[in-house]
Amino acid sequence: MKRPSAFLLAATCADAARAADAAAQAASPLGVGKLTEVFGALALVVLLIFGLALAAQRLRLGRGASGKHLHVVDALALGARERLLLVDVAGERVLLGVAGGRIERLHVLAAPAAGDFSSALAAAQAPAPDAT
Question: Which residues pair with 84 in a beta bridge?
Answer without folding.
Answer: 76, 97
